[in-house]
Amino acid sequence: MTVLAMDRIGFSRDGRPILQDVSFAVGAGEMVALLGANGAGKTTILRLLLRLLHPGRGKVLLDGRSLAGMGRRELASRVAYVPQGHAVTFPYKVRDVVALGRLAETMFSPIVSAGDRAAADAAMGHLAIGHLADRSYAALSGGERQGVLIARALAQGARILVLDEPETGLDYGQQRRLFDLMRHLAGEGYTVIATTHDPLRAARTFTRAILLRRGRIMEDGPAGQVLSEQTIATLYDADA
Ligand SMILES: Nc1ncnc2c1ncn2[C@@H]1O[C@H](COP(=O)(O)OP(=O)(O)OP(=O)(O)O)[C@@H](O)[C@H]1O
């Protein structure tokens, strides 16, 4: 069943088309890779899904309802963003970073309740990172940080996770653990949508790939089939 969809989306900046006629529908339990050359429009799609941008044409639909009329709180409880593992200078403990996911529920109240703490602990337990709870977030490795940011998204209560190049800066082992985790969550019915610059891994790991070329969908289908040598060559050859 479709949980999140784009219906004939068009988006321009300064009169320049960035996305044209982009349509797709994603169901629960799908793990979707969004691939394309630099500037193809991947991040723009993520930002539209999170309603950080508004489409010029078409609609983004969550459970069949347009995002346009949805409250910020409702949206945040359904769709969570996992940014690239960013560096922080403040000495937050991991538990506090995960509890920040509850801000969507507490409407930005600075008070984190016992319930919020319990949700944060549950999310860390779910991802088997409870042992990091009292560590400083700033002192974690890139892979550990990504795990914490995913826990924050789970603490938010969202079942749809939107990740921006989650493998960036991670070594091979950390990448593998991260993708295993994403696959595990998809197996539990979470919807995972991630941009990536690694077509070979996407072909092996994701259930589905959407290939974006110059703001249009070039291919959309089972990742292992869609990501052939030929399509990968076309996708990344800007002059072709
Ligand atoms: N704030 C902005 N103002 C003007 N143009 C922008 C802005 N953000 C993005 N763009 C343009 O929109 C197009 C799509 O950008 P987007 O970031 O979605 O691409 P991407 O596929 O995510 O690229 P990358 O792989 O480099 O992250 C690019 O041509 C980019 O220059």
From TrEMBL:
Report the InterPro entries cross-referenced here. Answer: AAA+_ATPase, ABC_transporter-like_ATP-bd, P-loop_NTPase
Q: Which residues form the ABC transporter domain?
A: 4-239
Q: Which PANTHER family match?
A: ABC TRANSPORTER ATP-BINDING PROTEIN (PTHR42794:SF2), HEMIN IMPORT ATP-BINDING PROTEIN HMUV (PTHR42794)
Q: What is this protein called?
A: ABC transporter ATP-binding protein
**Keyword ATP-binding recorded:** yes
Among the GO molecular function terms of this UniProt record, one is: ATP binding
| Gene3D superfamilies xref list | P-loop containing nucleotide triphosphate hydrolases
Give the record's family classification.
Belongs to the ABC transporter superfamily.
- Stretches assigned to coiled coil: none
SUPFAM superfamilies given for it?
A: P-loop containing nucleoside triphosphate hydrolases
This protein's record includes keyword Metal-binding: no
**Record's superkingdom?**
Bacteria
Q: Which organism is it from?
A: Gluconacetobacter johannae
Please provide the record's keywords in A-Z order: ATP-binding, Nucleotide-binding, Transport
